[in-house]
Amino acid sequence: MEHGGVDLNQVDLNLLVALDALVDERSVTRAAARLCVGQPAMSATLARLRALFDDPLLVRDGREMVPTPFALAIAKPVREVLDDIRALLDRSRRFDPATAERDIAVVASDYVTMVFLTPFTARLAEEAPGVRLHVTPPTPELPAQLRSGVAELGIVPREAYPEHVTMPHVELFTDRFVCAVDAANAEVGDSITLEQFGSLPYLAGSCGHQVSPAEAQLDALGVHRNVEMTTAYGLAPLLLAGTGMIALIHERLAEAVGARASLRLLDPPLPLEPIHEVLMWSSGTDTDPGLQWLRTRMMAVAAELDAHRGAGEPAGSSA
């Protein structure tokens, strides 16, 4: 049977991969780097795409390259076609964790690395010794990184990434905020008042690219802080020792640092919402056997860690 339209025998379907990268990156240079090809080769590919679609696809606007209306219109269908092809190829793959050799790109904060990925990696070394995690910190571009394949998994607070609802995701674990001081801090007893919280020197937590969930809640509640220092969340417990500073930290983090930080943990002087860490990925990797296995193991280990924590140490104890 004869079919009308373009003869696919005359079309290199790899051009669609390049088109997806060009529209997403809006730069020949960045698209070339993403696909690990030279810039001249990517320029030649763009010329082939322009001839194939009879459209300029990317046009210069000042110093930027912007997609044409036609390029924007076909971007989603092209992405869906590529996802379908990946899914089709993934069905034929087999994944044996005991023998697999693979690098997995994971986006996660220092906090998640300490409280979850560190114990998870210990299990991974036993079950899949050839699978290696490459962890990078979160950025606002996480959803785009997942869709493009730059990252394969992301573990981030859903409060900081509302875009998680547009992608496949599961809740991995929750954590509450506790107030922490050096165990020898004589200015604070077994509880802390809101007045003390606002007047004592404060160690603020940062998650890099934006206001952290804890600080955002305090801002929304109009809670004053006497900020003396700002640091990444993972470092906060270690910087309190020997100082008069107070900080809001994740309870799991206080448990993880254990003997490395002599802290006294207290209930915050006002109720705060917990954080919910979600595991995110792209729909294009839904059927990847290796990533399916890894996601399942992450969820199982998270549940196992929860079971071992039990009720945990109550606030007001030393860590």
Explain this structure to me?
The chain is an alpha/beta fold and 319 residues long. Among the domains are: 8-90, Arc Repressor Mutant, subunit A (Orthogonal Bundle), CATH 1.10.10; 175-275, Periplasmic binding protein-like II (D-Maltodextrin-Binding Protein, domain 2), CATH 3.40.190. The protein has 11 helices and 12 strands. The strands form 3 sheets. It has a 5-stranded mixed β-sheet with strand order 4-3-5-12-6, covered by helices on one side. The longest helix has 22 residues, at 69-90. The relative contact order is 0.14.
What is the architecture of the domain at 175-275 at the second tier of CATH? 3-Layer(aba) Sandwich
Question: What's the β-strand tally?
Answer: 12
Helix/strand structural class: alpha/beta
Output the radius of gyration. 24 Å
Number of helices: 11
Fraction of residues in β-strands = 15-25%
Question: Major sheet, described briefly?
Answer: 5 strands, mixed
- Which fold name corresponds to the CATH topology of the domain at 175-275? D-Maltodextrin-Binding Protein, domain 2
At the fourth CATH level, what is the homologous superfamily of the domain at 175-275?
A: Periplasmic binding protein-like II
pLDDT < 50 runs, ≥5 residues: 311-317
N-C termini distance: 74 Å
Oligomer designation? single chain
Order of helices and strands: HHHEEHEHEHEEEHEHEHEHEEH
Summed over residues and divided by their number, the pLDDT gives a mean of 86
Q: Helix share of residues?
A: 40-55%
What is the approximate shape?
A: elongated
CATH class of the domain at 175-275: Alpha Beta
How is the largest sheet built, in terms of strand order?
4-3-5-12-6
